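Dear Dr. K.,

Following up on our conversation at the group meeting, I've run the structure prediction for non-specific serine/threonine protein kinase from Oryza meridionalis. I'm pasting the input sequence below exactly as I used it, so you can double-check it against your construct before we proceed with anything downstream. Let me know if the numbering doesn't match what you have in your notebook.
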Amino acid sequence: MEAARCFVVLCVAVAAALASLGGGAVEAAAAQEMRRGFSAAHDRSYSQFEQVLCDPTGVFALGFLRVNSTMLDLAVVHLPSSFPLWRAIPDRPAQWSAPASLSFDGDLVLTDPAANKVLWSAGAAAGAGGDRVVLLNTSNLQIQSGGGGGGSLPGIVWQSFDASSETIVQGQNLTSAAALYTSDRRFSMRMGTSYFGLYIEPPASSSGGGGVAAAMYWKHTALQAKAAIVDGGGPTYARVEPDGYLAMYQKEGPPADIISFDTFNHGVRALRRMTLEADGNLRAYYWDSTGSRWVLDYTAITDPCGLPTTCGAYAVCVPPSGRCACLANATDGSGCAAASVGGGGGGLCGRTGGEVGGLYWEVRRQRVEPANKEFLPFEHSPSAADCEARCARNCSCWGAVYSNGTGYCYLMDYPAQMMVAADERKVGYFKVRSLEEAAAASGGRAAGVKAALLAVGVTVLVAAAAFGAYRVWKRRCRTAVDARRQVVADDEGLSPGPYKNLGSFSSVELSSSFRR
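The predicted structure tokens came back this morning:
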């Protein structure tokens, strides 16, 4: 697997890591350095992780990682825990059974030779490229150039510390030029000038097309007690520090702000990481080598109603229990929304629901407000009716909540979610895509479904003719009634019944017309 010019070392943690990953082939050695001309073919006999490159300590390894049982990714893994600290996350990932190959000839490239396509590349080939690839004992994967002679330091062409996935480790800077994303890209953590925030990301099909915007649901602003953030003084960045805190800097020296972990200044010296997890929460951990486990050290959001995944789209979260209810009828159970959330990125201009071809249904609800209202734009409005009208005539507005106490009209440019129970002074107005429009927005996939349904329909009609026109008529009536009940069983346009967690609007769209 190693090229002729590669140095080879034994990774002392390999056997234990592979055993914890569920067995498979046992690899005795991996390259410590890749030189130009390096190539490694993916061995599909491995069950979970196949090492290609090790750091000098044998604690970290770069290799082929099995994801979601069937998919292949390139990752830097913490071997004692089998946890991926960095992942390439290709836009079009290959199957684990695919004959993938990792090569280096100035740029690090993951390819599928059978399909003759590039799955992922570091992008180092845009310049002169690098001379070698190394994995440092910090878990930082680097493409380096020059150096190695006369004591000169190598140049860094590319490094994984500048291309984060879900996790940053201690000593790694997260700048405004980068972001943390969950693997499904539903949520992100991004730096601002004097803050960092957590966001619900729009689906890829909506970005750039209008219709759905990223929504902030948590924010931490720098207190600037020990150092001020100066306009024009350079970008800010965050870093997990060994003493147990996340610090925000504009330049090296005293931090502009810190977020203390549970073990802050407790003398715990261990590998630390901060991960944006699948539920949208930001958590920090340290590695307990004695107990061989990651210990939770910090949680950003402790209120369940502050998480977008607790109740999902078109639902209301009741604090402090986190109990969920449907936005339309406030009952627990399945069926909060009959239509898929979101659209094809074309906005919400057109007729309301109630007739075939309507773009959306209108839902009104009292005693609700957005959990993230402090991050939403608002306008002063004289009444709830005026607030509703402002949203109704706005093609990019998905909902509005009016407060009779303050006169604030909060406007939402994303489908309704993260709604919480409030007092009687709050009144909400929301738009829900109709089934007809959702089907039309699904593009080619919906067209294929329609074609299949048409073929089935023709067959049914032919067969039904033998049983007489009366039974055909009855069947059509019954089908029409059932279809209407799915979307308008009550006057608010949503199906009745118990609450069902549909996930955030991104996940709902991805499961219907926005699957990537």
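Two things stood out to me. The chain has two domains: 33-204+212-305, 312-340+347-437. The chain has six helices and 35 strands.

Best regards,
J.T.
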